[in-house]
Amino acid sequence: MLSEENNEILTRVGPGTPMGELLRRYWTPACLSMEIPEPDCPPVRTRLLGEDLVAFRDTNGEVGLVVEACPHRGASLYFGRNEERGLRCPYHGWKFDTEGTCVDMPSEPATSTFKDRVRLTSYPVHESGGIVWAYLGPAETVTPFRDFGTETLPPERVYARKQLARCNWVQTMEGNLDSSHISFLHQYNGAADIPDDGSDKPGYPSNAMAWKFWQHDGAPRLEVHDTWYGYRYAAIRVTPNENAYVRITDYCVPYTTIVASNPFTTRQLMVVPIDDENCWRYNFTSQIDRNPNGYGGAPLFSSVPFDTPFMNPRSGITPREYTAENDYRIDREVQRTETYSGVRDFVSQDFMVTESMGPVYDRTREHLGTSDRAVIRMRTILLKAAKSLADGAEPPALAAPGHDFSKIRSAEKILENGEDWRVLGTDDDPVVQEAMLTAEPRD
Ligand code: FES
Ligand SMILES: [Fe+2]
């Protein structure tokens, strides 16, 4: 449970709020590169941390991220003409370059110097890994880009997409950091009938067997281990053969989760606040995947009765077909006989529970148990960072010497006798060393 005051601090992201100021200190996804695919293409609206912005790519391919409202009389620059190295307002023709400089003001006399005194607010951007990242904080506190591995990703391996969640960003984060719900929300009756393929033993179980383990032990033991970037936590389940099956998820301040995968992964999930009541779920490849088994998505879903929607190949935005308005297309007969949720789309099962809490959940009314340990730890870290920033402290997990974001990996395994889960997925894990040294890069 949180006090009303802490819930406000945790959830509000607008300019001037404690959390809004903290989030502005990190390079943050503003849109997908695919949304503005070529020079002089149409601009896109991108609301970020409660600010209405427009992103555009100029004639030279440079990206501009500017305030949507024209500084003249407020018309939306989304409707602007993107031409000859600048975005021109459709109302009176004022034109701005990617830095926000007014380069033309045809509605004033040619002799006027007024245009030299008008600026459009523009934020620094950096394109990496198929994402346009922006820095919305004070210019004097900008720190280098946090490279999760995207800087060296060859163009043909770039993969990024996003999907809209209609709720406060913290609710979505708390779902990503909650290993316990996979034993319920995402379950289906047929999991009990999955044949035992012999992988319930120390080592790496098959994805199919993992579903059995999730169903078998609904009350995992959670252990949270603090790190320089946030924490790693292990959800430890007892398998039918009484082994210790561990799923390790990473949390990197402020909005990154790397969800457990077998044997390990670096795949990013970022929850980016649009405003207090909406957020984007960004999902992207951060580096060449040398994981011999790869991301568990495809093989996992081929054996279970759930759908995964495909992103729009033109924009990179995965559409929402299961929404609050259609009750996430819940099928009560399916819920009674086939799946736990009755919702066919896997991610929409998550949307159903996180969005139904309301746009900004009132955490004074909750009752937290031991399975919420990782959720509580994230809140504690974020609240402390937001309050300390107001007192002049540096935010955690910024780019700095010794901070190698590309080495943050989640993992999954059935432990050997006496094995320490904290080693899994790190440079000291033999399976990581082997993959890095010997495996061919995967597509
Ligand atoms: S409102 Fe944009 S030029 Fe007048
Ligand atoms: Fe989930």
Automatic annotation (TrEMBL):
Alphabetical UniProt keywords: 2Fe-2S, Iron, Iron-sulfur, Metal-binding, Oxidoreductase
Gene3D superfamilies tied to this protein: Naphthalene 1,2-dioxygenase Alpha Subunit, Chain A, domain 1, Rieske [2Fe-2S] iron-sulphur domain
Single GO MF annotation: monooxygenase activity
InterPro entries named among the record's database cross-references: ARHD_Rieske_2Fe_2S (IPR015881), Cholesterol_7-desaturase (IPR050584), LigXa_C (IPR045623), Rieske_2Fe-2S (IPR017941), Rieske_2Fe-2S_sf (IPR036922)
Boundaries of every Rieske domain copy: 27-134
Pfam families according to UniProt: LigXa_C, Rieske
Protein's name according to its UniProt entry: Rieske 2Fe-2S domain-containing protein
Species annotation: Amycolatopsis alkalitolerans
